[in-house]
Design a protein that fits this description.
Blueprint (H helix, E strand, L loop, with lengths): L6 H8 L42 E3 L5 H16 L4 H9 L1 H12 L10 H4 L1 H6 L7 E6 L7 H6 L6 E7 L2 H9 L8 E5 L22 E7 L10 H11 E12 L4 H4 L6 E3 L2 E3 L5 E3 L3 H9 L17 H6 L4 E15 L4 E14 L7 H4 L1
Helix pairs in contact: 4-8
S-adenosylmethionine binds next to helix 4.
């Protein structure tokens, strides 16, 4: 177990009783593999009669009520012992410093390759097809290249260019020094997604201009921003995208085990924490993300009112700059079979489209 896990949390997740669905299958082991071939996420439903320890992950499992109550208690404790003002300033004033330290310590061996990308975001399969024509993909907060490299490995499009940007110069160095770094299809650059234009310099990444990007990939980057930086990042992304351009989003969801197990002295503000290594993490909620993207305008900025949320359907009627094509929670129960722990994970996944441009094909927006 990670070092920051409390005994209380550990004891609790040993006793977790996940809800099960009514059984829809026979339990004949010959046809009860819960696997599709090739394997696809989302097919392992935990049903009555299943042995929860049979697999190491189950899909779409909502936390049980007892766990939700436990999570609320944990949040109360976290709020009661927040980060000191001194530390909050240290971590918020120079976040790149902490990510630089992270990549100095971990180089490229921390994050796993995101091999599921093209399955989850079909548009990535489209832009990498042989005859897809000129396509510009920007990955923001690209880290050690765990998304960009698999994308390029599977690419057949001679005219694909992937800009992999990160504000950590060490992350960029790791990407540039990798054997997989292929200059024909990839360029790694230092760029702060929350940069603001100044008189001396624009806030866009090197080599990219306004309206030049087809697809923006945001994988576990928005959670690393302070909520007061979201508007600046959205502004840059909006400017960079072509009309009709797409944003692919995946990040931590509210109630994920990583949030529930935070101990004392890590809470910065609601749903926003600092890890032991000085890097920050936010946990997103469905309605918040829908409003954040669907309600944003260059004039008014972020429009998030969780007391009176504007629905996806209402936002779809507006002519706001981004349409929310999809926003969903990917929930899994992860099972540690040897220590008999059952842990609820939750990630948010979204697909947004900048207004204008040709109508998207259904394939790319599924
Ligand atoms: C959790 S890591 C995810 C890395 C990568 N996207 C992946 O999924 O493997 C977050 C990354 O965002 C980068 N990052 C954080 N704030 C950023 C900012 N303001 N601009 C650009 N990159 C940032 C960090 O340096 C780090 O590499």
């Amino acid at each position: 177990m990670p070092a920051n896990n409390s005994k209380e949390y550990h004891d609790f997740i040993q006793k977790v009783q996940p809800p099960v669905m009514p059984s829809t299958r026979s339990h004949d082991p010959d046809n009860n593999q819960k696997r599709t071939d090739p394997f696809q996420f989302g097919s392992r439903f935990l049903e009555e009669g299943d042995n929860v320890y049979e697999f190491n992950a189950w899909d779409h499992v909502e936390p049980d009520d007892e766990f939700k109550a436990f999570a609320e208690q944990q949040y109360e404790k976290q709020r009661a012992s927040r980060v000191s003002d001194f530390d909050r300033n240290r971590f918020n004033n120079d976040p790149a410093k902490w990510w630089n330290l992270f990549y100095k310590n971990n180089t490229d061996n921390f994050f796993k390759d995101r091999k599921w990308l093209q399955q989850e975001f079909p548009i990535l399969a489209e832009v990498t097809k042989k005859d897809a024509g000129p396509q510009v993909v920007l990955e923001v907060g690209a880290g050690a290249g765990n998304t960009a490299f698999p994308l390029i490995r599977n690419n057949e499009n001679d005219q694909l260019k992937v800009h992999a940007c990160d504000f950590s110069k060490y992350a960029v160095q790791v990407m540039r020094e990798s054997d997989q770094y292929n200059e024909k299809h990839m360029v790694a650059d230092v760029w702060d997604a929350a940069a603001e234009p100044t008189e001396e310099a624009d806030s866009l990444p090197p080599g990219l201009t306004e309206g030049s990007v087809d697809v923006v990939i945001l994988i576990f980057i928005f959670s690393a921003l302070n909520p007061n930086q979201w508007d600046k990042a959205l502004r840059n992304i909006y400017r960079l995208l072509k009309p009709g351009g797409t944003v692919l989003f995946r990040d931590y969801g509210r109630g994920d085990l990583a949030q529930v197990r935070f101990k004392k002295g890590r809470y910065m503000e609601e749903n926003f924490y600092v890890r032991g290594d000085g890097t920050r993490v936010y946990f997103f909620d469905h309605d918040e993300l829908v409003q954040m993207w669907g309600g944003w305008t260059p004039e008014k900025g972020m429009q998030i009112d969780l007391e009176n949320p504007v629905s996806e359907a209402q936002l779809a009627e507006t002519d706001n700059p981004f349409k929310v094509l999809h926003m969903g929670a990917d929930r899994r129960l992860i099972v540690n079979r040897s220590s008999k722990l059952k842990m609820y994970r939750c990630w948010m996944q979204g697909l947004f489209r900048k207004h204008g441009g040709p109508e998207p094909t259904t394939e790319s927006t599924e």
